[in-house]
Structure formats: C-alpha cells, structure tokens
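To the wet lab folks,

You asked to see what we're planning to order before we commit. Fair enough. Below is the target structure as tokens, and below that is the sequence we designed to fit it. If anything looks off to you, flag it before the synthesis order goes out.
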C-alpha cells in the first residue's frame, strides 16, 4: 500500500482558546506521524459564524490540515475525531487521483 494525500477540515468548539485548539490539533496530527505519515503546517482559520446552528452552537474554530498517510490511518483519524465532543464537524477529502 502507498500513502495518499488528504485534506482535513474540522470545526472545533468555539469555547476552546488558541492554546487549547493547537493542543487538540497536535494530538490528532501525532496519530498521523506515529503511523509513518506526514503533514503540512495546520492552517488555523479562526472563529467563524455558521450559516446555521449546529448542535446548539452558532460559531466554531476552523482548522485545515493537508497530510499524507495510508488509507487506514486516515480512516482511524476520522473515527477518533468524531469521538471527541470538542469537534463539531469534520471533513476529510482525498486529494490525489485514484
């Protein structure tokens, strides 16, 4: 198997401060590097208003990360992100052609 390129966007709870958001992001990026993957510097978009209410919230902290890893690692990343109550939404897109 070979590594694929992905782009992850997640929205974290707006209650998190900058330090908490960076710590949360690093926790998930560690999962990628631990399994032999790599990532580019996370792009912190900051706090933004939602177009509609999500789980009783009107805004959240947006983070975008481009990374490369095996497909199984990306699947596991998605799974653990969805278990965290501080993560409002996630989206992982595979960026390379099949």
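Sequence we intend to order:
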């Amino acid at each position: 198997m070979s590594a694929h390129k992905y782009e992850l966007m997640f929205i974290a709870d707006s209650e998190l401060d900058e330090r908490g958001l960076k710590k949360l992001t690093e926790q998930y990026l560690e999962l990628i590097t631990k399994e032999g993957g790599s990532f580019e510097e996370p792009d912190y978009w900051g706090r933004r208003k939602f177009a509609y209410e999500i789980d009783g919230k009107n805004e959240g902290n947006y983070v975008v990360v481009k990374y490369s890893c095996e497909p199984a690692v990306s699947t596991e990343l998605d799974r653990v992100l969805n278990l965290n109550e501080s993560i409002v939404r996630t989206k992982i897109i595979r960026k390379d052609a099949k």
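Structural context that might help your review: The domain at 4-39+50-94 is CATH 3.30.70.60 (Alpha-Beta Plaits). The beta strands are 4-13, 38-39, 43-54, 57-69, 87-94.

Thanks,
Computational group
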